[in-house]
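This part of the workshop introduces the protein records we will be handling. A record pairs a protein's sequence with a compact description of its fold. Comparing a sequence with its tokens is the quickest way to learn the format. The record below serves as our worked example for the rest of this section:
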Amino acid sequence: MTNSHSERALRVEGELWQPVRPPKRGQDRTAFYAFMLLPGLSLSFYAAALGRSRSSVSAYRAAAIEASRSDPAITAAVDAAVRAMRAEHGLQMARVRGKAQLPSWSRLAIGDYRKRGFTRREIAAAFRCSPGTVANVLQGKGVAFALFTGERRLTPSQAHPSGKWSSVKRIASTLVKRCEVDAQPGTV
């Protein structure tokens, strides 16, 4: 069972959020640079949304970072865009992404739409992903990187490996101690 306001939100098509296309030479690039600096969007997302290669997107992002260092208006535009972000924008990003990974904004939007009462199948159809992906997002599984910073997240077993890795650490520490002893003057 869904509310009328939530049904309307899922039916909205392309009018809410669109990627900012690279401007032509001589045009103002502030909006484009702000778009390139939005947190939670991957290079593959930008490549799919803009129809450009990953190397072009990397060059755009590097130019945006460089421009943001000297122009505070770009940083202000990014902050304003982040504050204005809604679940509907996450839905539009998911629809624009093509085969790229779901953006962080879409992952947040999936949780929001679930709270509004939509089923996993309805959400999967709207976000153009599988019901399993929706289930994984709702359970918090499969996030190897922090949502907005992009920093690598380790699982507990990756952070503290068990068994065989501890013997490797022991061997490495033994080798280091031997090298230290051999490096001391007066020892043979």
DSSP finds eleven helices and no strands in the chain. The CA atoms of residues 158 and 165 lie 11 Å apart.
